[in-house]
Amino acid sequence: MAESTVLELKKVTKRFGDVVAVDGLNIPSINKGEFVTFLGPSGCGKTTLLRMIGGFYYPTSGSVIMYGEEINNIPPEKRKTSMVFQNYALFPHMSVFGNIAYGLKVRKLPKEEIQQKVRRILTLVKMEGLENRKPIELSGGQQQRVALARCIVIEPEIILLDEPLSNLDASLRIMMRAEIRKIQQSLHLTVIFVTHDQEEAMSMSDRIVVMNEGKIEQIGTPTDIYEKPATLFVAGFIGFINLIKGRVESIQSDNVVVSTGVGELINNNKNINGLSIGDGVTIIVRPESVTFGKKLSKKEKNCLRGSIINYTYIGSVVRYTIDVDGLDSPFILDVPNPEGRGIFQSGENVDISLPGKFHFIKD
To answer: What are the boundaries of each domain within the chain?
Structure first.
């Protein structure tokens, strides 16, 4: 195990009767100071996995390992972890100070040390001056800060966050993302975060673990997950995508030619991912990665013709839905700066030029 590795998961499985919530998951390492997000749809097993790390569930089989030692049967209060729940779970009868100090009192720290630690963390989470208020007197964002402070103040090895932003309104969620990330980086905290929100995961994480039906689909940086999805599930779960089915026609030193329903598409990517001539592939094209116009140059490669079905104005971009002959479903395309570029109308014919390098997944 690498010296910086805090946590490992080996073939971790959790069953509830006949239901397999988590199915033989392996995560080789979560490192000191790393922000790792478990991302996936509801029911994929991400919260169950988090609770096994925290000791609230014990694995049916497999191993949860911290600093090289299995901790499967150690109860939550004896683990070097601390958890922020979705509903914050603050004590309603206690003040802000009392809530934050609770874990330190349980550990029987001296009163003066408790005072110092709580004052310091209040400043860190920007709650100084509010220490005498009760949770009911706080906004949602303030309650979230108190829950985070209570978690951090006991100085755990791993902080576990179970969708802590889900109860906040959209603008406050964006602000709290930045605040949590800033605190995590400044204190070099190891954080495992659970969410179903792709934007949340992409904006906060060092690495993302994408889960589906109790299994891991892909582990990678936000850039890898978005630009090089390993499976069609990952590609479709992270943002909008266009799929073009095809077959590898030829492989040359500097490009791959794929035969599709819209003609031959040339990929100038030398990384062919073990492809062979004749292999079926699915080309992944993000809506924002294409060139778009009324009449593109005839020299443009990978050029498609289509007719606009409709568009949606989203302020900074216009999202077009375009009918392209040879594709099974409409092509989605995002164009920035609609005020400067103007907006094309339904029924207009347009050209779409795909990027010279695109990602594909072997069927």
So the answer is: 5-236, 240-362
